[in-house]
Amino acid sequence: MTATSTDAHGHTSSAAWMLAVEAPVQIAVNGTPFTITLATPADLDDLARGLLLTEQVIDNAQSIQHVEVRTWLGETLVNVAVTPEALRQERLGARTVLGNSACGVCGMESLAQLQARGAAVARSRRAVDDRAVARALNALPAHQPLNRTTRSVHAAAWCDMAGSITLVREDVGRHNALDKLVGALAACGSLADEGFIVMSSRCSYELVYKSSVTNAQLLATVSAPTTMALHWASALALPLACANWRGDALRVIRLAPASHQEA
């Protein structure tokens, strides 16, 4: 499309502008519909793998036999073949309504389902140096090719403990981007690797919970977390950080629930 802009002096100019694609994607498990979500139609095999893991439909990536992506008349279906005995049948009905790209809580039937997802086990974490976090946050924009052309897409990046970005996935939805990253890590057998996650968004509860599926030692986001994200991060013993730019300098801010700060 063509975009028109006006500068401070009233001069108008036009230029080509790419829009991010947001399209419905149906995800099925062994041929049975599981959920429909609005997503950027790229890396959809990773999206499906990650979603099944973060929604606790399966407990390990090894139970996924193969993923098939089919597009027909503009509609996309992703079918995940899973070893039947590995399925958690009680989780298959947890997201059987339309979801969107804005919030991972969308699609759940009740708050009881939300609370039921607190089964992830908190683990001890190794400290991530502030310099590593700052290095990753500063490097993230260079790893967002889709966002450079659309200005509307989030990224989730996996980083080694030194702050080098090793894997990135993008999507219009921040939770979709993280599901894609989890799925990509699962596909290459790296879910147990030690590292940390950097994201281009604010920190929500959903991002904290989904990160706990990996061996992330920290979750760093560009914007600050919500109160609910802080409470879940405390419950799962996942350290949080966010960015604070002062001019060209980036300062890493560490966050914890008020009760921890007062201790």
Characterization of the model:
The chain is built from 9 helices and 12 strands. The chain has helices at residues 44-54, 89-92, 111-116, 130-139, 145-150, 174-187, 205-211, 227-235, 258-262, and strands at residues 2-6, 12-16, 23-29, 32-39, 64-72, 75-82, 154-159, 165-171, 195-199, 216-221, 240-246, 249-255. It has a 6-stranded mixed beta sheet with strand order 8-7-9-10-11-12, sandwiched between helices. Strand 1 (2-6) and strand 2 form a beta hairpin. Helix 1 packs across helix 6 (174-187). The protein is globular, with a radius of gyration of 19 Å. 40% of the residues are buried.
Total strands: the figure is 12
Tell me the β content.
Answer: 25-35%
Distance between the termini: 54 Å
Largest sheet: 6 strands, mixed
Please mark out the parts with pLDDT under 50 across 5 or more consecutive residues, or reply none.
Answer: 104-111, 259-263
- Class from secondary-structure proportions: alpha/beta
Residues in helix, %: 25-40%
Strand and helix order: EEEEHEEHHHHEEHEHEHEEH
Q: Cα-atom Rg, whole angstroms? A: 19 Å
Number of helices: 9
The side-by-side strand order for the widest beta sheet comes to: 8-7-9-10-11-12
Average of the residue pLDDT scores = 84
Query: Shape, please?
Result: globular
Briefly summarize what is shown.
By secondary structure, this protein is an alpha/beta fold. It has 9 helices and 12 strands.
Furnish the topology, listing elements before pairings.
Blueprint: E1 2-6, E2 12-16, E3 23-29, E4 32-39, H1 44-54, E5 64-72, E6 75-82, H2 89-92, H3 111-116, H4 130-139, H5 145-150, E7 154-159, E8 165-171, H6 174-187, E9 195-199, H7 205-211, E10 216-221, H8 227-235, E11 240-246, E12 249-255, H9 258-262
Parallel strand pairs: 3-6, 9-10, 10-11
Antiparallel strand pairs: 1-2, 3-4, 5-6, 7-8, 7-9, 11-12
